[in-house]
From TrEMBL:
This is NADH-ubiquinone oxidoreductase chain 2. It comes from the Eukaryota. It is found in: Mitochondrion inner membrane. The lineage of its organism: Eukaryota, Metazoa, Ecdysozoa, Arthropoda, Crustacea. It holds the Pfam family Proton_antipo_M. The gene is nad2.
Amino acid sequence: MLLSSSQVLFFSSLSLGTLLSISSSSWFGAWIGLELNLMSFIPLISSKNNQYSSEAALKYFLIQALGSSVIIMSASFVLSSNELAIMLMTVALLLKSGAAPFHFWFPSVMEGLQWPQVIILMTIQKIAPLSLLSYTLYSSNLPIIPAAIISSALVGAIGGINQTFLRKIMAYSSINHMAWMMSAILISETNWLLYFSFYCFISTSIVMLFNFQEAFHISHIMNYSSHSPQMKMIMFSSLLSMGGLPPFTGFIPKWFIIQEMISSHMFVILMVLLMSALLTLFYYLRIAMMAFTISSPSTKWGMKMMSTSVLTPSLLYINLFGLLAPNLFMVIL
């Protein structure tokens, strides 16, 4: 699908806003970058083919505007109480990134988006808030961050168990991965960048599969995978990699974070993260086993045939990279 000239323009300004936020030398410049990012993403959400896009765009705008207003309000407390200003800034950034306990908008907005916009919301839109959040964490040690990590891990794990819509499952999965990313931020910036890079690659590969199948419900995966053994294997390995099951690629960043958290004596948070990882792996495995073993007798009309020339090897390599090249990460570790 080719992008129109307006979509290319808004995507370019969205990327520019993200770069401005993470490279700015002042909070005012970072705020300008966040606003540019917000105003560029709203037109990308709007779609004539999706009747829920207007609702999703309105929800996203209101929540992001609320976060921006809290950032401006925190600037007024810098002279009187620096700790209060940093705490308000942290709350605003958690709200913008969709982390618990400020996650209430994230699944509902994701449900009204198409898959290409879901990729942007899960990856690019988290770069600026998480980068700014790392700046606030390095300047002070607030108790709200461990509380946000624990709540994000539990909400992301428990919230996705009974879901059957794929976009909501990916939303709660993103909230759970936010807990791991915030834990990585507490350790070092390198660990956060490593985990976020792996998260972007793996989640993008899964969303590309869903978009290729035009799947929005678990039953859609069964309808398609029954006609394609190659798609069964790709879906199975991709979902298990997203869940962090060894020896798939998704386990590599979690392995690093686990070892660093043990070295930093963060045992309570690590225990919650590991328990939540088991719950997330449960609903990933539920989708993967249904796609791998159950064949639906119904036929999906207008089904696309999968091109095995590029898509199959690339997606398999992304999710099996940890299995194919484990020695590289042993040397790095």
